[in-house]
Amino acid sequence: MDSQGSLPSNTTKKSKGKQPTEGKEKQQHRLWSVKEEEALLGCMLDCVCDKYKADNGFKAGYFVLVEKELQKALPGTTLKAQPNIESKVKNWKEKYGVIADTISDCGHH
Question: Does position 106 have pLDDT exceeding 60, yes or no?
Fold first, then answer.
């Protein structure tokens, strides 16, 4: 066993370049402001219609449409459908699921 431990030494600092042996680096998470989240939700509500509804989410093209509306609402934004908007919606769904499960569990005791 070597004395370095199991974590790479560069876990706390940003790496400027990739070394061939490191493989794919994990993408940095973007921090959303409250204003950006509120604008995203408003744009999603404005863009939702039967054309983009699906049984378990949204049809292809929906997030691109939301991206265009978000750029109108927040000029100069760098938020993109992939990965930013899709990732934020996935995060919201996960948080909703945890909260819904917690509430459901509390009702059965």
Answer: yes
